[in-house]
Amino acid sequence: MSLSQKYSGKVLVPWFNSAEWHYVYSLVNSNKKENLVEALQLLHIWKIRTPLLSAGIEGTLILLDALGTDLEQLTEEQIKQIYALSLMRFLNVCATNNDKQGKFTKTMADSDLPKWLINIRHDVAHNHKLPDLNILDLALTICFNWVKYNYWESQKDKIVDYIVTNVDYPSSIVNVFTVYVDLILKVYHNQEPETYSQEFLDKVNLCIPKRVNSITYNPVGVVCYLEKLLQDKVTVDNAKSIRKVFAQYLVSENTLLSKIYENNDEGKRFRYMWKNLLNILHEKDMLFDVINQLFEETHNALLCNARRRTASLWINELFKALVKSKMIKKEFERISNDYSQLDAKTGKIVLKTFVDKNPHLKDTLDLEINNFPNSEGEEFLEKITENPDEYTKIYLDSVLLFNGKSQLFNKHTNKLLDAYNIAKIPQGSQVIYNLDSLSNLMVDLETTMDFNNEINNINGSTSTNSFLKWTPVSNPGSFTGLPLGVLPTQNRLTNPLLMF
C-alpha cells in the first residue's frame, strides 16, 4: 500500500530537501524523454530509500516505468501486458487511494478521471482479451497528466524543509527561529492574521503548545512566546550547529535587508523591531555570525549596490550598538564594581546622563552590556582591512572604535583605505560589467542621494562615490578596432578568454 496524499501528519520522506523534490517536479513536467528517464531513475532511488511512498509518487513511478519501456524489443502483446498491469496498479494504488475505503466505482468517480477507465480496468482484470494497445496508451497518458496536476502541481507550494535537531521540544529550534522572524515581519507590516497562509499557520502551530493563545487572536502574544522559547532553548551546545543557519536566514532580502536603511522614524521602527532577537543572538555569542553574513553580502558583486549598501549600514549599526553598550558598562562600573546590584532608579539616572553626553547614540540599538567578544571584533577588523571595498568606509570607524584603537591608528587606516579605493575603482578593468549591472545601476540611482545622506550623517564624512565604474568616455578613439564588450585596458595577458 502507499500513503494517502491527504495524510496531514509528518512522515519521513525520501528526498534530501525541498530543492530535490522541486527538481524532480521539473523533470516530471518536462516533455523531453531524457528528463523523464532521469525522473524515473530518481524515483527509483526514492523507492529504495523509503519503500512506502506517498500515493502520488508511487503512481508517478508506476506510470513512468510503463511509458519508458523500450518498445523495440517487445511484441505488441507483451507491451499490452505491461501497459495493462501498470494501468490497473495505478488505479488501485493512486487514483482511488483514500482515507475512507469504499466501493471502487464511487472512489474512482470522486477522482475526476474518465469513467471509461473503470471499464478498462474491469476488462484487464476479468476478460480473456486485453484492450487495444492504442486505448491502453491513451489511458496511461491521461493518468500521467492527472497525477501531474493532482499531486505534483498541488504539492509544489506545500513542500517545506523541517530540520531535525537533537532537542527536547515539539519543533526544532531552527523552525522556531524562522517562524519567529516571519511573524515579526507580518506584525511590522500590520498584516491581518486572517490573511496568513494555511502553510504558515501550520508551521506556527507546530512551534507552540495548545495552551498558548491562537495566533489568529493574538499574534503579538505568540511572538513573545517564541522569543522566550529561543531564549531558553538556544544553548552553547546547539548554537554551534545552528549559528550559520540563523545568520543566513536573518540576512536576506526578505528579512533584515527587506527595507532600505533609513535614518527616520520609520527606519528606526524597523531597526528596533529586531532589537529583542539581536539581543538574544548577542547573549548566545551569535551576533558576529550575523555581522559576518552581512559582510558577505557587501562583497557579493552579483547583488545590486542598494542591497550591499544596506548590509554595510547594518554592520555600522550593530557595531555602534556594541560601542554604546561598552560605554554604558564603563559608566556603571565607575559607580560600582557590582553594577548588577544597582537599584532601578540609579540605573535610569546613569542611562539618562549617558544619553545627554552622547546624543549621537540616542537612537542606536540597545544591546545587553554583559557580553563583548573582543577576539571576534579583532578578527573582523583584520578581515575588512585585508579585503576592503567601496562600502568598508561606511562602518570602518565604528569597528575601530569597538576595538579600542588609537586615534593615530584610525587615521592611518582610513588613509590607507582611501588610497586603496582611489586606486582600485578607476582601474577596475578586470571586472566585466554587463546589462544586469546597468539594471542594478538604475535601482541605485533611485536611492543614491538618500544613502549618501545617511552615510554622511552617520560617519560625518563624504562617502566614496560608488559609481566610479560608470564614467564618461573621454577618448572614444581608444576603442577603435576592439570587439564589442572589450575595454582598451583588457588583453589576453590579463584575461585568457580574449584572443588578442
From TrEMBL:
GO terms for biological process: maturation of 5.8S rRNA; maturation of LSU-rRNA. GO terms for molecular function: endonuclease activity. It holds the Pfam family Las1. Coiled coil: none annotated. GO terms for cellular component: Las1 complex; preribosome, large subunit precursor. This is LAS1-like protein.
